[in-house]
Structure formats: C-alpha cells, structure tokens
Amino acid sequence: ALDYASMNSFDIVFMDLHMPGLDGYETTRKIREVTPGKQPVIIALTANALPQEKEKVIHAGMNGILIKPVSDAVLQKIINQWILKESLSTSEFKEITVDMTSPVDLDDDKNKMTFSIDVAKEFTGGNEELAYELFTMLRFELDNYRKEILTSVKENDLKKLKAAVHKLHGASRCCGTTELKNTSSHIENLINQKIVFDIERETSDLLTAIQNVADYQIDD
C-alpha cells in the first residue's frame, strides 16, 4: 500500500487506525514521507471517541477523524467538503479539522485568544464536554512543555526547541487555544525556514502564551 501511495497521486485516504501489523498512525507518517509533493487528505476511521485517540490522530499527521459506523452519505459529504470544497456543517458528522500551518498575524486580536470554547468545539464535532476535556489535558502537560523549551533556550539548541514547539503546536491546535497554537507555530515556521531569530525573545512570547493558558479561569 505504501509503494502504491508513493507511485500514485490520491486526493483523499480513509485510514483505519487499528490495522494488523502497521497501524494507521505509522502508515500515515510513512505516507507523508513518501509523498513529498501533493499531500493527500487523510481521514481517520475509528470506533474510539476518546480524547487520547483524537490527539494521536492529529500528531500522526491526519486531517480529520470520523467515528464509526460511517454511512455512505457521510463519506460522500466528507469528499464534498475536502475535495470539492463544499461547505458542511460539523453537526452532520463527528470530525476534527486540522488547520494547515500558515503565517498568521500575531498582533491580530483574534489570534491572541487564550481560550475559546467555540473554537475548541469546531474540533470535537460540537461536543462541549470533550472540548473542555481536551483543554484540561493540555493544561496538565504545560509544565513539561515549559521545561523543554527553557532547556532548549539555555542550551541554544534549535533541534530540541523545534521538537518541543512541534509537540506543543500539535497539542494546542485542537483545544481552542489560539494564541498558544499560533505562537508555537510561528517559532516552528522560523526554524523550518532557517530564518535567523532571537531565540530568547521569540520563546518569551511563547512562554507567556503558555502561562496565559495555565492561568485561564473557566467560567462555571
């Protein structure tokens, strides 16, 4: 299947996560490696709706997730949305839409939101309880991210910093934490594009965004 993917161009792939042998996560990573040009849209198929599963899907490089069973009508709607670019209400199916990394204006107020439940619900098919659970899980890991970033800055190690912000970006983009997502993405882009930057100044903004999420008070 991987050889076939490397020799052919596909618009969309529906990926079973729990295949025998090579699972859907590793298969996705390998497809991303062997298709350096036009990347296919990869949608995960799973019966597991747990937050941990959704996070693993995003980290593996998939574009979305569908909870089985999935009808033919829903599959057609997914194709219409991703390939034909037709609008589709997320209430029609359970989906996580992962935004492709692109430059953002960090001075724009809409990109400075510490947390938005409405944005978070876009990634959970409108499930508010799950959205808050993902946000809580992210906050639980913030101290580890902070330590990794501080260590990489102290050692002036861009490789370590890239690994840390890549993980943080992946975790934050499905939690409604717009400021944290955009700030971590900004640093990752600087490193990927080999742009010379002030590591202490840029990470200072990121550490502030981390602290903002840690201090955020959820209304009862």
Q: pLDDT under 50 segments (min length 5)?
A: 87-106
In what range is the share of β-strand residues?
Answer: 5-15%
- H/E topology pattern: HEHEHEHHHHHH
Number of helices: 9
Helix percent band: 40-55%
Largest sheet: 3 strands, parallel
Structural class determined from secondary elements: mainly alpha
- In the CATH hierarchy, what is the architecture of the largest domain at level 2? Up-down Bundle
Features:
220 residues; Four Helix Bundle (Hemerythrin (Met), subunit A); three-stranded parallel beta sheet; mainly alpha; globular
Describe this structure in words.
The chain has 220 residues and is mainly α. It folds into 2 domains: 2-92, Response regulator (Rossmann fold, 3-Layer(aba) Sandwich), CATH 3.40.50; 109-215, Up-down Bundle (Four Helix Bundle (Hemerythrin (Met), subunit A)). The chain is 54% helix and 7% strand. A 3-stranded parallel β-sheet has the order 1-2-3, with helices on one face. The longest helix is centred in the middle third of the chain and has 27 residues, at 128-154. 30% of the residues are buried.
Topology:
Elements: H1 2-7, E1 12-16, H2 24-34, E2 41-46, H3 51-60, E3 64-67, H4 72-82, H5 117-122, H6 128-154, H7 158-172, H8 178-192, H9 199-215
Parallel strand pairs: 1-2, 2-3
Provide a compact summary of the structure.
This protein is mainly alpha-helical and 220 residues long.
